[in-house]
Amino acid sequence: MSQFKSQFMNIMTERGFYNQCTNEEGFDSYLYQCEKEGKPAVGYLGSDPTGDSLHVGHIVPLMMMRWFQKCGHKPLTLVGGATARIGDPSGKDKLRPFLSEETLAHNVEGLKKSFAKFLKFGNSGNDAVMVDNWDWFKDINYLGFLRDIGTYYTVNRMLTMESVKTRLEREQPMSFLEFNYMLLQGYDFCELYRTYGCRAQIAGSDQWGNITSGTELGRRKYDVELFGFTSPIITDSAGKKMGKSEGNAVWINEEKLPAYDYYQYFRNIGDAEVGKCLRIFTDLPMDEVRRLEALKDQEINEAKKILAFEATKICRGEAEARAAQDTAVKVFEQGAAGGDLPSLNVDSDIGVLEAFLQLGFVASKGEARRLIKQGGLKINDQTVHDENYVIRTGDFVNGQVKLSQGKKKHGLLKR
C-alpha cells in the first residue's frame, strides 16, 4: 500500500533514499498536485566544482534527481562557481584551498559531464538544466547583499548550525568567509525559485543546515514555502562511507577511472550491502531487487554481477558495462587476462616492486615488500616470493604479463 500520494515520495521511501524532509506532507502534496496536473515540479541539486568529476559518494542524491525526472519533474543541477570560491564548511576541519579561475572552469566542465550521465539535459519539458551561481554572484553588491539578505539571518541561529557548531566544539577556527556560506546557499535557493519556480532542494543529509537556510529565507523574504529533502549518508556494514576503494575515490568520469574498476567496485560490495546498493545505484524494478537480495551463499555473487553491470550501465553506458563484465569473466572465471584491465606499457625489464608501484597497486615499494612477505602479489597467477625478482621477456605471454594483488585486483604489463 502506498504511503504517499506522489509517485516520487513512494519511490524514495521504498528504495531507501528518504532521510529527512522540511515538510513531508506539504512536499508530497506539491508533487502530487504537479503530477496530477501534468506539469513538472522543479527541484535542484548543487555541487561545488572543487574537483573535475563526481564520485560514487555523490551518486545517491544524483540518483534521487534521476528518479525525480523519471516521475515527470524538472531537475536543475547547480554548479557552485561562486560558492567554490569560499568552501562549504560542512564536515570540514579547515578552510578549503582556493582554486584558480582556470581550475574552476575545468572542474565545472567535468561536473557537467558527471551530471549528464544520470540526467537528460535539453530545452523542453522536464529536461534538466545546468546553472552556475557565479552568474548571479559575480556582479553582486556587497552592501546591497548585506542589507537585502543579511537582515533575515541571526547569528544566534547560525551558531546552532551543525557545520558551525562542530567546528567551534572542536575549537577549530572558522573564518568569516566560511561563516557566510549558508547565506550564499540560501540565496541560491531563492534565486532558483525566482528564476525557475524551483521549490525543492535535494541533497545528502550533511547539507541539512544549508538547505534550511534557504527554506527559511524563502519563507521570510518571499512568503513562499520551499522544501528540503535529504538522503541518508550511505555506509557499509563497517560504518564507513561508501565511495572509496583502496583509499581512492571511485570516480564517475571515465578519464578518472576505467569502466572495469568502476564495475569491480560494485562487484566487490559486501554481501550485506547488495540489497541496499541494488535499490540505490540501479534502476531495476523493486520486484527484481527483492528477488536478488534474497539470494544466499554462492548465489549472492550473481546478484553482485547484476548490480555491477546495472550500475556501470547507468554511468558508463551499456557497451562499457558489457566490456567490463566480459573482462571480469575472463579474469575470474576463465583464468585469462582480460583486455580491459589497468595496464602499463614497458619497453625493458622491470623489477617486481617497480612494476606494482607504477601500475598503482601499491603506494610504495615498502608496501609491495610487505605484500610479498604475506604472499599477496602474483605474476601470471604465480605467487611472488622474491622482492628482487625482475620481470623479463620470458615472462611475457602474447605480449603481456598479468599482475595480481590478492584475488580481486589485476593488471597487465604490455610491450
Word description of this protein:
The chain has 415 residues and is an alpha/beta fold. It folds into three domains: 7-231, Rossmann fold, CATH 3.40.50; 258-333, Tyrosyl-Transfer RNA Synthetase (Orthogonal Bundle); 343-414, Roll (Structural Genomics Hypothetical 15.5 Kd Protein In mrcA-pckA Intergenic Region, Chain A), CATH 3.10.290. 44% of the residues lie in helices and 13% in strands. The protein contains 18 helices and 15 strands. The chain has helices at 7-15, 24-37, 59-70, 101-116, 134-137, 142-148, 155-158, 162-169, 176-179, 181-196, 208-222, 259-267, 274-281, 286-293, 300-316, 318-333, 352-358, 365-373; strands at 20-21, 42-47, 74-79, 129-132, 200-204, 227-231, 244-245, 248-249, 343-345, 350-351, 377-379, 382-383, 390-391, 400-405, 409-414. The strands form four sheets. It has a six-stranded mixed beta sheet, with helices on both faces. Strands 9-15-14-11-12 form a five-stranded mixed beta sheet. Strand 5 (200-204), helix 11 (208-222) and strand 6 (227-231) form a beta-alpha-beta unit. Helix 12 packs antiparallel against helix 15 (300-316). The protein is globular and about 75 Å long. The relative contact order is 0.10.
